[in-house]
Amino acid sequence: MCQFPVVDFTCYLIPIELHYFICVKGYLGFSGSVFTGIFCVHCNSNISSNLRDILEHCRLCSFMQRTDVLKHKYVCYACSYATYYNGNMKNHIRIHLGDRPFICKLCNYTATRKTHLNVHMRNHEKKLNGIF
């Protein structure tokens, strides 16, 4: 039982009522005193915002439904996407996180995958060569 005074709280993100501050903190995904905002929809546990920690959780969470354990080594913490490959899951997680680590040096374009940036750079080359 929580040791904090009873406080009625209705979550604005997900329709649920919570009655203790510590429960609210746990539900929303606080890590110590830092809010990460990343929690598993399968087990409701808070996950560090570190990509390596997220991948580990996607591989180890026992609450995630795996239709075929041999084919689905990783299941996404935020949806039902599943894959066997670490790299595929890493690319998928970037969509949920809004992480766009690949940056164009010629304009403000950013991408979740290096292949997307390469296609973008080819368009710059075409413009510079007068093909476009």
Automatic annotation (TrEMBL):
<keyword id="KW-0804">Transcription</keyword>
<feature type="domain" description="C2H2-type">
    <location>
        <begin position="102"/>
        <end position="129"/>
    </location>
</feature>
<dbReference type="GO" id="GO:0000981">
    <property type="term" value="F:DNA-binding transcription factor activity, RNA polymerase II-specific"/>
</dbReference>
<keyword id="KW-0862">Zinc</keyword>
<keyword id="KW-0863">Zinc-finger</keyword>
<protein>
    <submittedName>
        <fullName>Histone-lysine N-methyltransferase PRDM9-like</fullName>
    </submittedName>
</protein>
<keyword id="KW-0539">Nucleus</keyword>
<keyword id="KW-0677">Repeat</keyword>
<dbReference type="InterPro" id="IPR036236">
    <property type="entry name" value="Znf_C2H2_sf"/>
</dbReference>
<feature type="domain" description="C2H2-type">
    <location>
        <begin position="74"/>
        <end position="101"/>
    </location>
</feature>
<dbReference type="GO" id="GO:0005634">
    <property type="term" value="C:nucleus"/>
</dbReference>
<dbReference type="GO" id="GO:0003677">
    <property type="term" value="F:DNA binding"/>
</dbReference>
<keyword id="KW-0805">Transcription regulation</keyword>
<dbReference type="GO" id="GO:0008270">
    <property type="term" value="F:zinc ion binding"/>
</dbReference>
<keyword id="KW-0479">Metal-binding</keyword>
<dbReference type="InterPro" id="IPR013087">
    <property type="entry name" value="Znf_C2H2_type"/>
</dbReference>
